[in-house]
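The aim of this short unit is practical: by the end, you should be able to scan a pair of folded records and say something sensible about each. We start with the first protein, listed as its amino acid sequence and then its structure tokens.
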Amino acid sequence: MNILASYNWIKEFLKTDATPDEFARELSLRGPGVEKVISVSGQFKNIVVGKLISVEKHPNADKLRVTQVDVGAKKPQQIVCGGSNLEVGQLVAVALPGSSVRWHGEGEPVLLASAELRGVKSDGMICGANEIGLTDLFPSSGEREILDLTFTKAKPGTLVSTAVGLEDPIFDIEATTNRPDCLSMVGLALEASASGLGRFSFSESGLPKTKKVRDGLKIVIENKKLCSRYLGAVVRGVKVGPSPAWMRARLSQAGIRSINNIVDITNYVMLEIGHPMHAFDRAALEGDLIKIRSAKPGEKMLALDNKEYSLNERDLVIADAVKPIAIAGVIGGEESGTTEKTISVVFEAAAFDPGSVGKTSRSRDLITEASLRFEKGLSSHGCAWAMSRALELVRELMPESELTEIIDVNPKKSPVHVYGFRPAYAESLIGEKIPAQKQKKILESLGFVVSGKGTKWSVKVPFWREFDIEGERDLVEEVARIYGLHNIKPVLPAGFSSRIAQAKNTEFFWIDEMKSFLEATGWTETMTYSYTNAAIYKAIGQSTDTLLAVSNPLSSDFTHLRDKLLPNMLVAIKENQERYPSGKIYEIGNVFMPAQSGLPVEGLRFTAISYGHNEEGFASAKGLLETLADKFGFEGFRLMRMTDNILFHPSRSAEILINGESVGMVGELRAEVQKGADLEHRAGVLTFDFAKLVPNMKLAKIFMGIPTFPSIKRDISFVVQDRLTHDEIMEAFLAVDALVIGAEKFDEYRGPEIGEKRKSLAYHLELRDPNATLTTAQADELLEKVRKVLRDRFAAEVRS
């Protein structure tokens, strides 16, 4: 998951002199990766704060005004403006010539130049918020309303981006799934401090004391398994309205739209602390009750996204005495949301089971900022941390409000994890000499509490890493990454000789060799997901009965684990065939089959597909098989015809056997499969069980000298049953005598003259004696042996 993080916001908790680029580099080397540093300064180039000196009526237009504006230059700028709210002394946003603006907030940006408007020269433009991209921060009440910046008290000539708090580098940061703490400004500041970028500075304020006034609200946790803690704080006398500009700016920089001051406080706390919150209109809670319970079958709730969701007993909800008012950890209800009429609110800070939130969210494709954090695992200790910060912001933004009651229902204390840690063991795993005191300093810089001396310590895990750290090896990983993986000197393993000597019998080695060869011969590797869905299987006529269902799918496209590579590869071809009407692709990857008990069984598979080239599906797939067999030394394969495989054409496909064991299939897809996959051309497929192929692979080549004596060729024709394959006939030829060294089919015929289910074949036989020249009599004798084998083994009618 990615987060947009303001550097100035991070620096509220980090004393640092690092430049944005230094911050991005060092943090990425040791912790969350900074994918991009975004600067908004270019967007506001030549857009400055101006002070209106005079406002006069335009001589030729009733709705226009001629103004003199102080923009910090030697003399005022004359600007013609149609704004409806212009006043002398007002601070406004002035776009000077050379800046880019959107006329009335529409269309593409245009470059501004001096111009005459109704006969009066205008050296710039006094802008509305929508014309310079600040609508989210400063919503306007009318089309002609200009942006009033008087509240900033900025000096004329100051860049607008500086005046409204946007002159701030924004980091696009990716936090790994196990690190929800890094989806907050405080968490990122701690990571940066541990990475040597400055001193972490944060002090948690405790929950404020409440007056003796009781609100009468009751909070009950009915499902204690899925909700480990719930804090509710009742605040009266609130006035719901716009948030201050600095808060709107912070939320906008993080990609979150400002709603109102109450909602914005909860989002601000989520971004700063990392723990999502919610706020209910106190008057909308029926029965003076908040109950955290499982939903009842058939219950429905209209959510804040204006969609109605059907609920079931697997969903955890926040409810009043009558109805659900929120889906726990996911989204609030429309009926209990705060509005301009709200005068009393209940702030919520809770801890929910990550699996429950994830299942509810994913099953409805309802992904929210809150659900993405809760499903990663948040400690109940963070509830009070978030609530105290929210109430601090309430006092700051609404000093006239009154905190009447804080209700803390905490039936299940979060565990405190303590693990043993051995500095010497850490060194052995990392492969680097790191002094024990340095290891201790690293752990403590991340918030771990280290105690003990000598060879073994006890390390207490901070609550924000509760779901992440599971043992000593995880602690070693923390030491390694903060020390810097780039600082660990690479060392070759002892006794290392060569890549082939080390790995010639492993799947990894043969995967590398296979990939290198295929890419050199024009094949393109694909890497499809290990997940799949029932739709593509049904489209190509495959059963989904044995597919393993994912209990918590990421989306409706990833509901099962794949048991073969082909379906997902066909989807990839379908999505790309408009740009690439022909291609040769392959994939080597794991598939998953059910086990009798325990975890699924994984198997390594190889699949290659050639499509759209010359419409010769089977020939292209069989050609690849023969090429690979020659390259990797498994020439002794046999092909056996398949007639009942629902994927492959009944007469253009075969099972691949090596030493009598089935290792794969080669053939052309059935027309029904091609249609189901929306392929525009015939496709040839080669697929292997890679693990079965590996024992038969070799790179060594056997040199065979040029024959000393010539070979003799004889032709033979015969009629046999149509079911006989070329491989079976070839095997019979070569088994007759060592002097029969090869055969080549040159004719095949079927027709009423030879009978139903029969075919006429003709072969060139090649005969050679390595020690002497064959005589005609010897050749005739060998040919007669071949005829006898054909009659005896296949009941063939030999014609010549």
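Turning to the second protein, read its sequence before its tokens, just as you did above.
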Amino acid sequence: MFRNYLKTAFRNLLRNKAYAAINVSGLAVGMAACILLFIVVRYELSYDKFQPNYSNIYRVVTQDKYSDGIDYTPGTPFPVLDAMRVDMPQLTTGALFASYGSQVTVLGKDASNNSQKKFIEPSGIFFADPQFFSVFHFNWLSGTPALLAEPNNTVLTKKMAEKYFGNWQSAIGQFIKLDNAVTLKVAGILEDVPANSDFPLGVVTSYVTIKSTKVYNYTTDWGNTTSNEQLYVLLPKNVSADNINKQLIQFGEKHYEKDRNSKRIHFLQPLSELHFDNRFGNFGDHVTSKSSLWTLSLIGVFIIVMACINFINLATAQAVNRSKEIGIRKVLGSNRLNLFWQMMGETAIIVFTALILAGVLAEICLPFIKHIDSINEPLSIFTIQTILFFIGIAIVVTIFAGSYPSLIVSGFSPMLALKNKITSASIGGISIRRGLVVTQFAISQVLIIGTIVAISQMNFVRKADLGFNKNAVFVLNSNSDSIVFSRQTALKQALLNTPGVQSVSFSSDIPSSDNNWGTNFAFNHKPDEKFTLYLKMGDEDYFKTYGLQFVAGHGYKHSDTLKDVVINETLVKKLGLKNPNDAVGKEIKLGGGKWKTIVGVVKDFKTNSLREETKPTLIGTRQKFYGTTSVKIRSSNLAQTKDAILKIWDKYNPEYAANSYFMDESVNNFYKQENQLSLLYKIFAGIAIFISCLGLYGLVSFMAVQRTKEVGIRKVLGASAANIVYLFSKEFTLLIIVAFVIAAPLAWYMMNNWLQNFAYRIQMSVGVFVLAILASIIIALITVGYKSLRAAMANPVKSLRTE
């Protein structure tokens, strides 16, 4: 019997090639999209789960509560490490300090300084104590964590050792130099850290080394907090995080001054949240919000549901052609259960064929997945989890797509079937089929609206007035040490003499960055203000190089130390001053320093990304922090001028590798994930439209065959081609409008929530929704119009002769 059903199923599919092709295509594309999204979501959720103590590892984070809001910092003051080990000895506490933009110079066995092998490590170099490796587990190829108890010892991962020394075995006992200041001995080798980790360890130096050198600004000041200094704890199994959080509140009350301008506490953040909490960030290259993963999962469900709807609609419509076959089978003794499983078998064949094609499509598209997610390692669809997902999705789709049509077909009355009295209107319920079409187009329109909003927001971001000129500014980062400082004057003059260079500035960082260097401060000889002031240090040409505009006063003169200062409009407003001119001439004090005169107020510029409000900011001179060289270039010959700048840099700083980029690239990197999401919406809106059009084309094709005589009669009675096209398209247009009524509020809710991630954002106007429904109607009319026009142009004589 099974063999007979299988033969019949293949025969029916071969007889109805167009029907089979549409179903297989729709299901294959839908399942391939679903598989790729599953791979992305599973990968993002897998971060650091290889750690044996994953569920018991926590990061100690900092919360500062001010009168006007709360600030979160992933780091702690340096003294917290030793104090916690005294106050909470039951915890295993490890420290990890990161230094970004650091240079590694390979010295070799004799530790000579004439090496030309210099590297800037973009993911940072790290300092860790032995206890860090009691909290986290990493495999050691050579050495033990005890090596990191000694100053000037470092360990490399296998990948880094091979990069610096050719092979990791020969790296042991050789020397490297950090930032041209600290000579280190390679004492151990770590196995490479998996890519799905927020701890991209490459160079790990002993933590005591930062205490013995002034390069990394180690301080015992409890008021100095940096996000680069992070503490991790391993909780014993019988100790709860809530209990430790209560102890940390008491810890803060004990160690922090009560007259601070904020209420500071520390609390534990689970390792499971590190990759997903935008408040704190991590040492990895990105943070993924769980809402984004839910969105991806939901899109995957949407796509596969649409493919199943196509199958259901086409299968129930196609059932009319098989009414006589079903009638004969019932007369010859087949019961409803036999016929149900026959239909389910045919569905399974289609799904299995589609699954093979989906696997091929997914494998072809897998290398391009990095464009929609920050995944840089090679992925495979042939993993246990993915194969299980393949099987699961095939079963679910077979049941979901096949059950309803199989129930309908197996329930035909043999008398009506044999008399050919079964019609498309009498099976499956027209209202159900309409409901499925509405669902399908509602999903498409949600994705279309999402695409329009995402594109509009990213266009807004690209064209937004940042308050400074980011174009054609070439930036070089380096150490901020005495050697660099001694050459800055000569370097600046050489750069200014270069054709194409308009201005040069030295500073702590560029105007818009991830930097959140803040301090307490006082204004106009009053007590400390109850909010944080954010700092940027730059020379007298900082304003000219970046095109910052003054609304009051002027810039300051050259100085190597902090003297006169400039503030932004946001600070003026937060100080309660009505006019920027009221701030000029007043004095301000940073921390416990001396009073400095405000000489100017600049127009607000975006200090961070557009996701954040502009911060109250002060700009002043302090050569000690000038690690950034910014060169404004005429845009007429960027490439040639850039090469000339790099040659001059190598001439004046031969010991330092050039870590360079154009500023507009840096600003664009702020929105990498948003651009990926925008691209994702485009791709999956296109897939949704493709699947919708496939289903619509199939339904209209079937309707055209079923209504051949009706079309012929209407043409004989004088109907025009336009009338016939209208006959086929009017119902679908109405269904699209109904779908829009459902989709619009859902899309508004989803995209409004997404826009809340931006402090500066577009408003979703009526035009967005009008454009979405017009696009849906036009796409549907094109799909319907082609087939209906062919039906309308057919010879009515031939139409009336068909049986």
